[in-house]
Amino acid sequence: MAHKALHEKHVQKTGNILRSVLIWAGFLLAAAAGLTLLLTSGYERVELALVIGAVLCYGFALRDFDIDDDD
User: Fold this and answer.
1) Which end of the chain, N or C, is less surrounded by CB atoms within 10 Å?
2) What's the start-to-end Cα distance of the chain, in Å?
3) Torsion angle (degrees, nearest 10) of CA 26, 28, 32, 38
4) C-alpha span between 21 and 61 (Å, rounded)
5) How many angstroms separate the Cα of 71 from the Cα of each of 12, 37, 47, 66?
6) How many other CB atoms sit within 10 Å of the CB of residue 57?
7) pLDDT at 7
């Protein structure tokens, strides 16, 4: 059976770009928290804030930005 050519909708494309940015931001925040933990002492609040930011980035990256149910 022939496959129909699917075109990405604007919302899907924007959602994919935003998801990629959030994933990379989460990676960078987690790396910054790890480096801060390894290289310094006494910055527990900063490290906690970086970890919370990373978790929030990952949580929003899992969100489905395409609001219609055509999947």
Assistant:
1) N
2) 19
3) 90
4) 9
5) 11, 42, 39, 9
6) 19
7) 62
Supply 48's token pair: 């906690």
- ∠ CA 33-25-9 to the nearest 5 degrees? 160
pLDDT digits (tens, 9 = 90+) for 8-53: 677 677 778 888 898 899 999 999 998 988 888 888 898 899 999 9
- Single out the residue of 69, 68, 63, 70 nearest to residue 23, CA to CA: 63
Phi-psi label, residue 42: left if phi above 0, alpha if psi -120 to 50, beta otherwise: left
| pLDDT at 13 (0 to 100) | 78
Tokens of 38: 């390894």
